[in-house]
Amino acid sequence: MTSPPSDQTPCQQPCTGLRADAERNRDRILAAARRLYATEGLGVSMASVAREAGVGKATLGRRFATREELVNAVFTDRMDAYVDAVDEALADPDPWHGFIGYLHAVCAMQAADRGFADVLTMTFPAAKTLEACRAEAYDRLLELITRAKNTGHLRDDFTHQDVVILLIANAGVVTATGDSAPDTWRRLVGHMLRSYAAPGAPIPPLPEAPRPTALYRAMVRLSQTGPGTAQGGGLGR
User: Fold this and answer.
1) Cα–Cα distance between 68 and 123 in angstroms, integer?
2) Is the pLDDT of residue 82 over 70?
3) pTM > 0.70: yes or no
C-alpha cells in the first residue's frame, strides 16, 4: 500500500513530535515552578520542580540548565507588571499620591507571590530579561522619588535604598505571616509611609494590626521553618 504524500521527510516527522513534546514539558515545568515558587518561595529545589512537573531531572536540565534560567522564564511577566506599576505612579498628577500607590502595588505583588517577593530582593545576573526590567524600573523610580520630593511631602533624606529596605522587610513579613495573617504587610507599609512622609504630608489611615492569635501562629510557624534566606540588593544598581 502506498503511503500518502507528505511535505515532510520521514526524518522531519518525528522531529516535529519531539518539538511538541519538548514544548509540553517546558509548559509543565513552568506551571509547576510558578505553583511552588508562589507558595514556598525561591528556596524550592530544581528536583522539587521536576517532581511537581512530572518530568525527570534530565528533562528539566535540558529545558532550563540553571535555576536563574527558570526564574527568568517564570517571572518575566511579573517584572513587566512591576515596571507598569512605576509607570502608573508616574502618570498620577499627584506625585506623592503616585508614590504611595507604587509602594502599595509592589508590596501587594510580593504578598500575592512569595517567589516574586524573593525576586524583588535578590539579583540574578544571568537572568537578562529580569535584570533589564529591574534596571528600567530603577531609572523610573528615581524620577518618581524626585517628583514626590518636589511636592514637599516626601522627606528630603529619603533615598531609593529605602525602597530596597522596605521590600526586604516586606518579603520577610510575607514569608512569616502569609498563611495566618496575610494582611500584615499592609500594617508594615502604613508605618513605613509615616517614616517617609514630611511633616504635614497627607497619608492614608494606618491599617489595623493583626490579631494576636494570628500573629502568634505566624511566630510558631517561623520558629518551625526558620527565617528566610533571601539576600537583598535587588532594586539598586
Assistant:
1) 10
2) yes
3) yes
| Residue for grid cell 517561623 | 222
Residue 176 has pLDDT above 50, yes or no: yes
Percentage with pLDDT > 70 across the chain: 87
> Which pLDDT tens digit goes with each residue over 33-50?
999 998 888 889 999 999
Work out whether the CA dihedral 93, 77, 33, 141 comes out positive or negative.
negative
Q: Are 138 and 236 in contact (CB under 8 A)?
A: yes
Which three cell numbers mark 90? Answer: 508616574
- Within its chain, how far is the Cα of 91 from the centroid? 22
Q: How far apart are CA 145 and CA 140, in angstroms?
A: 9
The residue with greater pLDDT, 96 or 115, is 96
3-state secondary structure labels for all residues of the chain: CCCCCCCCCCCHHHHHHHHHHHHHHHHHHHHHHHHHHHHHCCCCCHHHHHHHHCCCHHHHHHHCCCHHHHHHHHHHHHHHHHHHHHHHHHHCCCHHHHHHHHHHHHHHHHHHCHHHHHHCCCCCCCCHHHHHHHHHHHHHHHHHHHHHHHCCCECCCCCHHHHHHHHHHHHHHHHHHCCCCCCHHHHHHHHHHHHHECCCCCCCCCCCCCCHHHHHHHHHHHHHHCCCCCCCCCCCC
